[in-house]
Amino acid sequence: MVILYFLIAVIILIFLVSIGIYNSLVRLRNRVKNSWSQIDVQLKRRHDLIPNLVETAKGYMKHERETFTTITEARSKAMGAQTVGEKAKAEGALNGAISKFFLVVENYPDLKANQNFLAVQEELTSTENKIAFSRQNYNDQVLFFNNKIQMFPSNIVAGMFNFKENEFFEIEDATERAVPKVDFS
């Protein structure tokens, strides 16, 4: 009889622990989704600002058609990307196009002094900072979630309820990865 009560207590304990683990997995999954939605909001804001920036610059940079085309194409691909990996790749290309654009802008002092251009550029810079912060937060939430899925005993519950690992949002950008060269000669 004591053994029966003990087995019932163990089964109830396992059941309660499983419920707790399941609930924590759901909570973490929802945090990941919320973090992704924050990135998505900032990316949409960025995608909305880019045409304003390009239109403001077009009047000054009439012979820079290739630069405008590159930005427009990169923006379209970024807006059409579906998965985290696709978005990361497309946003990396868009980052490169915007960087190239700002390098070209350096050759146009009148444009750099234009108040409309400066205002849009400031908004875009602010949005880029928000994207970086949101990306860091998203990756932190993905890390917590993926760790929970992989660690014992939650990996058992995660497997039973088909919880899948999430992808990190990593933008491969050669300029971010390049080691700066210091030369004092």
Provide a quick synopsis of the model:
Helix content is 79%, strand content 0%. The chain has seven helices and no strands.
Write the layout of secondary structure elements.
Blueprint: H1 2-58, H2 65-80, H3 84-105, H4 109-113, H5 115-150, H6 154-160, H7 174-177
Describe this structure in words.
The structure is a single chain. The protein has a single domain, classed as LemA-like domain (de novo design (two linked rop proteins), Up-down Bundle). 79% of the residues lie in helices and 0% in strands. The chain has helices at 2-58, 65-80, 84-105, 109-113, 115-150, 154-160, 174-177. Helix 1 (2-58) packs antiparallel against helix 2, helix 1 runs antiparallel to helix 5 and helix 2 packs antiparallel against helix 3 (84-105). The longest helix is centred in the first third of the chain and has 57 residues, at 2-58. The protein is rod-shaped. The model is unreliable at 178-185 (pLDDT under 50).
